[in-house]
């Protein structure tokens, strides 16, 4: 592993709730004797931790392109199909350590965890008030927990550099990956600590972290670990905030201002035309012949996925199965050309045909209240090994919003049938959001079998449930950094 370096903190100021106010500040090498000293310094340092968590092709882990975890994660499932570069590797499950588009997320972002660790230390050592320190550190720890969980979900345990190593950046210190249980505890500790001092959802600025977001990430972590009782408890906490509810207009949440006005959205990443935080989804999805405004057409869904929806499901609305170009030629499943040959166009968000650049102002929705309800439903059923009426009622609440009728408990009385049904509902509800469905399939041991069923993949295996690390990371670990199984 490279020498752990104290990176220059390039602070991105999120003033208020609008990304148009983002300003890049370069502080150079930080001297703790003079920085941070003021509330403004602390604010700048806290704002900097949002920088890697935004949408940006160049350096945002939640980019809505092939450089973001959503597209690559969904490509490993039946939701998306890619036919070249890392998207094809994800679709085929053919990724290996030499595939930079797959190892990219760790290579690019693991050291941001170290930056956040140093940020916490510098805030702790500052002379500002204790109240300000607590609030600031809560946001940083939420960011660190979110980033660490995101990478852990993709790669397994990470290298987490201790503060003592980070304070001595000129001393070469190869490090091993953290043991599995310690990794889980590290993420959990960050998020639990963040909950204490983050604001209530009603008091948090749009686009900033709040208590419900930290608990939502904890729900994802505890689903990953199948700690069902904790999932139920966390879900109840969010429900008891009495702040969130299902939005009656599912499609409307992805309108130009839908996320901002929805009481279902737990956290969204604000986007703008200037690319401060970018949403490139229309550019990625829409082919050049699409009217009124096309894009590059780099991705499609699958007809297999499309066929799993009930015909009147509102959640299928933006899976575009037919369109007509400027010359009057209609493309559909029977006449796909190269535009619908794998599946419909997964246009989850508003077309934003008036957009003036490659970007859109539609915000990137990351977590929603529907996830709280479906997670609680899964946990209730699996905790006792038997589906319950309460768990089915939660699923039906989400289905009813989609314009669908109730599922009957009597038809899903065993846990296998229930989980299969729930996985389908999760895929229909969260397709092309934050890429979490890959983890859902893995949790229920469907990742490999689904790739065989939908793709007939000759590359898939249980080892492909984790992405590989790059050979560079392994080499620089000097024997301490161990590759994931199946990639040596």
From TrEMBL:
SUPFAM superfamilies xref list: TPR-like
Occurrences of domain RagB/SusD (ranges): 264-446
Subcellular location: Cell outer membrane
Alphabetic keyword roster: Cell outer membrane, Membrane, Signal
Entries under InterPro entries matching the protein: SusD-like_N (IPR033985), SusD_RagB_dom (IPR012944), TPR-like_helical_dom_sf (IPR011990)
PROSITE patterns: PROKAR_LIPOPROTEIN
Family of the protein in this entry: Belongs to the SusD family.
Protein name (Swiss-Prot/TrEMBL): RagB/SusD family nutrient uptake outer membrane protein
Organism annotation: Sphingobacterium chuzhouense
């Amino acid at each position: 592993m490279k020498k752990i370096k104290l990176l220059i903190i390039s602070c991105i100021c999120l003033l208020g709730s609008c990304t148009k106010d983002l300003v890049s500040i370069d502080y150079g090498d930080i001297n703790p004797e003079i920085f941070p000293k003021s509330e403004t310094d602390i604010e700048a340092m806290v704002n900097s931790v949002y920088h890697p968590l935004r949408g940006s092709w160049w350096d945002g882990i939640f980019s809505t392109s092939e450089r973001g975890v959503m597209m690559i994660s969904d490509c490993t499932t039946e939701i998306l199909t890619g036919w070249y570069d890392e998207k094809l590797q994800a679709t085929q499950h053919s990724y290996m350590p030499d595939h930079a588009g797959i190892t990219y997320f760790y290579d690019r972002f693991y050291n941001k965890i170290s930056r956040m660790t140093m940020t916490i230390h510098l805030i702790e050592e500052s002379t500002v008030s204790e109240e300000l320190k607590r609030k600031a550190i809560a946001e940083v720890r939420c960011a660190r927990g979110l980033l660490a969980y995101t990478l852990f979900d993709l790669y397994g345990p990470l290298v987490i550099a201790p503060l003592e190593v980070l304070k001595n950046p000129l001393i070469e210190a190869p490090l091993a990956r953290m043991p599995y249980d310690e990794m889980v505890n590290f993420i959990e500790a960050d998020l639990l600590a963040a909950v204490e001092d983050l604001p209530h959802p009603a008091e948090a600025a749009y686009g900033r972290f709040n208590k419900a977001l930290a608990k939502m990430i904890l729900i994802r972590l505890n689903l990953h670990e199948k700690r069902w009782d904790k999932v139920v408890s966390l879900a109840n906490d969010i429900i008891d905030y009495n702040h969130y509810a299902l939005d009656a207009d599912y499609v409307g949440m992805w309108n130009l201002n839908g996320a901002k006005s929805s009481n279902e959205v737990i956290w969204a990443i604000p986007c703008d035309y200037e690319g401060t935080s970018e949403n490139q989804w229309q550019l990625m999805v829409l082919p050049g012949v699409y009217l009124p405004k096309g894009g590059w057409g780099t991705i499609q869904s699958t007809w297999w996925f499309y066929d799993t929806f009930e015909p009147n499901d509102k959640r299928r609305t933006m899976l575009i199965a037919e369109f007509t170009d400027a010359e009057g030629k209609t493309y559909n499943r029977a006449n796909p050309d190269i535009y619908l040959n794998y599946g419909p166009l997964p246009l989850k968000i508003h077309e934003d045909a008036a957009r003036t650049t490659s970007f859109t102002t539609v915000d990137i929705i990351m977590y929603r209240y529907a996830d709280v309800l479906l997670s609680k439903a899964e946990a209730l059923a699996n905790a006792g090994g038997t589906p319950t009426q309460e768990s089915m009622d939660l699923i039906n609440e989400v289905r009813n919003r989609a314009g669908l009728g109730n599922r009957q408990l009597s038809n899903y009385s065993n846990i296998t049938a229930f989980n299969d049904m729930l996985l389908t509902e999760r895929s229909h509800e969260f397709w092309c959001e934050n890429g979490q469905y890959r983890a859902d399939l893995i949790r229920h041991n469907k990742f490999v079998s689904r790739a065989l069923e939908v793709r007939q993949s000759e590359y898939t295996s249980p080892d492909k449930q984790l992405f590989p690390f790059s050979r560079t990371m392994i080499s620089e670990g000097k024997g301490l950094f161990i590759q994931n199984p199946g990639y040596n």
